[in-house]
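Lab notebook, bench 4. We co-purified these components, and the gel suggests they stay together. Before we commit to crystallization screens, I want a quick structural picture of the whole thing.
Request: model the full complex, all chains together.
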Amino acid sequence: MSEQNNISCACEGGEPKAVETGGGTGKGVGRILVLQILAVAAWYALYLQLLPFSEWFAYGLLGLDPVSHLGSAVQFFVYDTPKVLMLLLLVVYGVGILRSFVTVNWTRSFLAGKRESAGNVLAALLGVVTPFCSCSAVPLFIGFMTAGIPLGVTFSFLIAAPMVNEIALVLLYGLLGWKIAALYFATGISIAVVAGWVMGRMRLEPYVEDWVREIRAGEATDEPHMTWKDRFTYALDSVRDIVGRVWKYVVLGIAVGAAIHGYVPEGELAGIMGSEAWWSVPLSVLLGIPMYTNAAGVIPVVEALLGKGAALGTTLAFMMSVIALSFPEMVILRKVLKPRLIAAFILVVGCGILIVGYLFNAII
Amino acid sequence: MKILVMGPGCPKCEQAEKNVRDAVAEAGIAADIQKVKDFQEIAKYGVFSTPAVVIDGEVKVVGKAPSKKDVLSWLK
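Here is the predicted assembly.
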């Protein structure tokens, strides 16, 4: 159980740097709150200026023609890059504060008393906000098992956690619009709930590795008490950590988007990934399994696929498969799960993704 | 003083270990720093999220790599 080399995981390179917070303990909170309100106001004022600025920059300063490909591509890039980055800053900060409450231990004890079905829904939703990285999947799995959380509920969490998160949602919203972001959220949660529930029905408990079932875990440790100031610091740390890691994907994604905006003729991929080819959905799911990246990394690809005329259902299926069904994560989970359970996991989640793919190809 | 750094070996866990070692070196204390990679061992401490740092049996941080400054404050 011990030899485990460096696992490449979706949360690589996280180096939270210490944030220097000076000053006293109690009275600082009020000042921080005021500063935050001012920061949000400034954020909003700046946000409103982005569109006029981008138009001035592309058409006024550079003198490009608004109807030309180059002009609209430049304007799109200059507008979207700060827009998405600013949204990311705000959302990651907010979720960071939320996350300082919803820790793994809190989620574990919260889910411990829940039945299935309701438990599946709660686990999937908590998967969105609980701090999780695939490196941590094994200790988390042990924690859930030893707390008596049903296997199916645990899987609802494990499916939702990497797949549906604030970064994916902000990027989808910023690059592809709120409809696709909402669609992704709803279908991702549904897959996690239903797949977890189905796995609960399949009586897979015997296929959890024996040593896991024999573990007598220690009492969960009390979390160190966090003051509001600690929570703000925690949120600020997560902004540095996450935005510092994700910004390059954002810029890349928008550059791809800008290029499509101006140049790429539509319909090139339509033959392969268009909605008329029935085998395109299973093919994208299969293609997605060996690929592994986090939600941020796959979105530029998704954007390019959609821009080139791939069908929405097929593209969503591909994205979900890349994130939720990844070979490296299976290797990590193999430490606690027997192969049959892993196979069941891939099969059930894969079917869920297939259904989503076909559904959206059919209705859109 | 006995310090356990828990985690299977992902980049964050290594960051945690490095910060702990740096802090111990800076504080100039003699401490026995061990890396715990065994999941059963980790679970015994009631730790379900990695990385985690345990000093003399007391869990100091769970689920994130502490900064050097954090570690220094625990060493006092």
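Residues 1-25 of chain A have pLDDT under 50 and may be disordered. Worth comparing against the SEC data before the next meeting. Chain A has 16 helices and no strands.
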